[in-house]
Each structure stands twice: as C-alpha cells, then as structure tokens.
Q: What sequence folds into this?
C-alpha cells in the first residue's frame, strides 16, 4: 500500500531532477506523478484488485443492480412528454412510508405541485409536475431506483 | 490482547483511512462491503472483502446482524465502525460484545449516555459544563414554556439525532406548533425516536470542538478544532488550531471537555463539540461524538499522531501511552471536504462515474479519498469524495498551500464543490479567521442576491 509519506519521499527525490512525469506500477497499484507549471505536483492513482486475496465464496451474490438497471432505463426516450426525474436516486411517491401518495392516476396537478421525492445521497429532492394537467400514467413504482431524465409519469395537459 | 484481524464496517474514504493504519500496523484487514462497493478502492486495498448486503444502507451498513455475522465468519477479533452508519449505535457495540469481538469504540454505556442528547446534556451539566438554555419539549405547552424562558428564536433538536441532522429553527411563537409537529415526525422517521428538545438559538456562535482520548481511567485531549464553516449544519472546512480565540477561553473549553470525558470515564477517541461566543467569552456544550470524526485529519497533522492507531491500541486494552505534556500542537492544518454536489444547481447531489481524478501531491499535503478514475459515486451514500488536508508553519501558509492544492484538483464525471472552497479561501472574512456558523450562509446569500 502506498502511503502519503511514500509519495512525499518520491517527490523529494524528483524535485532535484528535471523529471516532469513519473509513473510507478506494481501488481497492486499504479501512480502517476506530474509536475505542474509552477513546480508543484499532482497525483493520479489506480488501485488494483489482487484476485488471490478476494473471497469468492463470501462474495457470492452478484450485484442486484445489474439486473434492475436494464429494466429501469425503458423510459429514457426524450420525445415522450411527461414528468422526468432531474437526478439519479430512489423515487418515492409518498412523503413518508405508509402515507398516501402525493398523486395518483387521474390526479389534477398544477405545475408547482409536488408529485414525488427523489432520495440521493441521503438528501430528499421534491419533484414538481412542471406542467398543469391530469396524471395519466405512473411509470415507476414507489422505492425504485431511477436514472436522470427517466420518465416518471405522463400527463394529459390541461385544456388551455 | 492483540488485534490480529480487523473487520472494517464502513465504506468510502474512512474505510480507506482505517485500512491504511491496519496495514501499517501489520493487522490483517477484512472489509465488509455492500454490492456496489465490492469493487471499491477500499475493497481492493483490504486483505479480504466480504459482502454484507445490497446497496441500501438499511440492508447493509446499517444491518447489525449482517455485519456481526460477516465479522464472525471472517474470524475477525475486532471491528472498526468508522463514522456515521452504526458507529455510535449501542446495538452494534453490544452485538460485538456478545459475539466476542472487540468493538473499536466507547463502552456500550457511554454510547447510550451520549447518544441520547438530553442525557448527554445532563452529564455535561453534572460535569460543570455550561449548556444552552432549554429542555425537553414533550408537548406544545412544555415547548412554549421553555421558549418563553429562553427567548426567541429557538432551535428544535432531536433527542436521538446529532451531527447537525434533525435541527429546526423557529423564529417566534406562531410557527412553534407546526414546526414542533414536523420536527417530531422527522425525528421519528430519521432516528426512530420521536423525542425532541428545545434550545435557545445562539446567533453568532462558532463551532469549536475538542478531541479527547481516554482509556477508561485516564483521559487526555489533543487540542481544538474550528468547524464553523458549515452549510445547512454540515461542516465544509475545518482547521486546527482555532484562529482568533483567546488563550483563556481556549483553556476553559478544553478543561470543560476533559471534565466531561472524565465524568463519562471515556474510553476511545471522541469529540466534545461546543458553540463558542467569542465576543462574550462564553461557550456552551453541544454534543459528544463517540467515534472518529471526518475532520480528525487536521488534529493528526498538527500533533503527528495517528488517531486510528490510538483507537486500536485503546480497544486492545493498552493504557494511554503519552502524557498530556508531551502533546505539542505544531503549525496549522486545514481540511476542505470535496463533495459530489453541483454548486451551480443548489448543491444538488451528483452521483455518477468518475472519469478522471487528479489530486495534489507534495509536502504538507494529504489527500484522504476513495476516488480514482472509474470509481462509481453511488446515489445510496453520502457525497464526500475526498478530504484535502494541508499543513504549514502558520495559518497564512496553510491558506496559501490549500489554494494551490485545490487549483490542482481535477475531478471529472461528477460535479464537485471545489469552486466553493476556492471562493471561501479568497474571502477576506474567512482569511481573517474566527467566522461563526452563519458565515457561509451569509456569503452564499450575498452571492445569489
């Protein structure tokens, strides 16, 4: 494992030389050190997995996300009008578990109405209808992971 | 005893941080990881990696049974909980005890005493530490009574909360009922405990904290940290020592932390947080964080100690090895938290795949991170990507070094808040030192208005 102190030792050696770029590669890591215009340095690292040290027996179940993600990108088609998720996260239809959903099929919404919540990195973001009308279809169930720009609901626009 | 195999029950930069010390000390490491973290930098650095559950934290990093079972199966003799997740949950400490695994943290009784924020408050009072006027608000009538005694505005806090979460500021009596009800339901949803309490809102307070180390008998401190640069009660920049604080007030704050630590017979590394009113030379107890903290790195830079190594030694039953007098604070250290958030879009979280990750390197610079090119920033976890920590002879030198270090950061693929840090570092008020917790909010409001 390469420590901060190790990097500093290497840089001390390099500082007195005309070397502009230094790359060190082992079976466990790769580090690229680059001198910048003002003489200071940057680092880019790559940590490698040593296969012999992993434990296939305990890492038995493959990530479920792989299977789920193929199913959830179905509604990314940008041409379909409706309410889309502004960011990646978990979609919730209700303000808290057990509470009634913000909207249902048939609900009439104003543009500023909240229709759901996206939870991303422990932060809750309200999703607004963005357009007035009647909720026609709800495409994403409660608690499902959604992609950015994924279609959540379709709306029949209010008559002008 | 001697710790031979350590189970790391956390993720992200702190998992990497703990693994480094384990490696340095020749302790075998086993990382417990959720599905999306099985190929993380921490998983690659650990000697072994075991799956503890799917992506949602409730089913992996917050699942006591899954974690303890994984630690047992891996044959670990100790477990480090990191920060956040279950790090301060007495249930994990107790489950470890039952399983015969050393919990790297305080005793169960201490976690219970300080995890309940009202109980922590009364321990502080018993230790002679000043607390902010307030008390438990079990009903609207009780809340009104407290508010009339303390004056407005007040802050509603969750008894089971902490870390700046679950706080609600109430300006006057009209809003109290609504805010109280919201706070109670929020507290229940977030912490599983609906109890809340009220404190007078201190307008111009600085967030200052003391790092303590105890072995259950003896207790020492490792100086102060200033964590006043906060956005929505979340720390963004931390430094040590504390700028613009009188020596007299600093020693009173340290003495208060030590008195509380001794009263709790504290074992492990911990932090006592205070709100300090520098102008009035007054300070108040906020809470005890019974774990390693994100900002522990600045203390390490100015003391030369490895706090994770200290935690492991204490957990192994080794008494404190150093005398208080041998601890010297040298130079000045600053930490900037690089978060995956979009500064241009109201700090919206920005998950995704990191395509490029260039960090500064050089003398007086330390980067604690779990981010490399190809790393996935998952929407399931918090947004901390890296801590850029610098150390220099004095604060001016540290500020200069940090500005140069930030300029060399280039993270692509996800949005990061580097620009915000650069903004703060060039702001004259921050450069003078001694800003209060309202500072960043005012700076941002001035920028957008």
A:
């Amino acid at each position: 494992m390469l420590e901060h102190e190790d990097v500093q030792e290497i840089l001390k050696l390099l500082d007195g030389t005309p070397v502009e770029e230094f790359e060190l590669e082992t079976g466990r890591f790769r580090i690229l050190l680059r001198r910048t215009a003002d003489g200071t340095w940057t680092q880019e690292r790559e940590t490698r997995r040593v296969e012999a040290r992993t434990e296939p027996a305990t890492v038995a179940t493959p990530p479920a996300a792989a299977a789920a993600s193929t199913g959830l990108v179905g509604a990314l088609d940008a041409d379909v009008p409706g309410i889309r998720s502004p960011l990646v996260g978990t979609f919730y239809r209700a303000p808290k578990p057990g509470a009634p959903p913000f909207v249902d099929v048939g609900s009439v919404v104003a543009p500023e109405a909240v229709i759901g919540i996206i939870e991303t990195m422990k932060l809750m973001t309200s999703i607004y209808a963005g357009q007035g009308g009647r909720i026609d279809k709800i495409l994403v169930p409660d608690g499902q992971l959604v992609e950015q720009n994924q279609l959540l609901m379709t709306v029949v626009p209010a008559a002008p | 005893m001697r710790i031979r195999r350590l189970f790391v029950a956390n993720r992200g930069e702190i998992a990497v941080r703990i693994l480094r010390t384990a490696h340095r000390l020749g302790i075998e490491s086993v990382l417990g990881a959720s599905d999306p973290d099985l190929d993380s930098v921490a998983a690659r650095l650990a000697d072994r990696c075991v799956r503890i559950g799917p992506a949602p934290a409730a089913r992996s990093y917050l699942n006591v049974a899954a974690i303890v079972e994984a630690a047992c199966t891996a044959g670990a003799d100790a477990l480090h909980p990191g920060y956040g997740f279950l790090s301060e949950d007495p249930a994990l400490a107790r489950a470890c005890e039952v399983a015969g695994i050393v919990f790297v943290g305080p005793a169960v009784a201490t976690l219970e005493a300080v995890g309940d924020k009202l109980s922590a408050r009364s321990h502080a009072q018993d230790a002679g530490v000043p607390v902010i006027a307030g008390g438990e608000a079990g009903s609207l009538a009780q809340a009104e009574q407290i508010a009339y005694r303390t004056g407005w505005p007040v802050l509603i806090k969750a008894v089971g909360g902490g870390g700046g979460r679950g706080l609600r500021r109430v300006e006057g009596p009209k809003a109290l009922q609504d805010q109280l009800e919201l706070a109670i339901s929020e507290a229940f949803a977030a912490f599983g405990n609906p109890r809340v309490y009220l404190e007078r809102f201190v307008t111009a307070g600085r967030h200052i904290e003391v790092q303590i180390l105890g072995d259950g008998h003896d207790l020492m401190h490792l100086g102060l940290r200033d964590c006043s640069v906060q956005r929505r009660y979340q720390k963004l920049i931390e430094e040590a020592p504390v700028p613009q604080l009188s020596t007299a007030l600093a020693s009173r704050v340290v003495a208060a932390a030590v008195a509380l630590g001794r009263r709790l017979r504290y074992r492990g590394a911990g932090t006592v947080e205070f709100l300090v009113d520098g102008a009035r030379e007054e300070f108040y107890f906020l809470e005890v964080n019974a774990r390693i903290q994100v900002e522990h790195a600045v203390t390490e830079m100015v003391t030369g100690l490895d706090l994770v190594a200290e935690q492991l030694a204490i957990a192994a039953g080794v008494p404190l090895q150093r005398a208080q007098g041998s601890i010297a604070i040298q130079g000045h250290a600053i930490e900037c938290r690089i978060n995956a958030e979009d500064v241009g879009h109201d700090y919206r979280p920005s998950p995704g795949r990191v395509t490029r990750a260039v960090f500064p390197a050089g003398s007086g610079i330390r980067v604690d991170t779990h981010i490399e090119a190809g790393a996935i920033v998952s929407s399931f976890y918090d947004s901390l990507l890296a801590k850029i920590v610098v150390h220099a002879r004095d604060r001016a030198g540290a500020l200069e070094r940090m500005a140069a270090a930030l300029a060399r950061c280039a993270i692509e693929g996800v949005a990061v808040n580097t620009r915000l840090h650069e903004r703060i570092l060039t702001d004259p008020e921050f450069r003078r030192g001694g800003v209060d917790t309202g500072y960043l909010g005012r700076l941002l409001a001035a920028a957008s208005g």
Remarks:
- Residues 173-191 of chain B form the longest helix (19 residues).
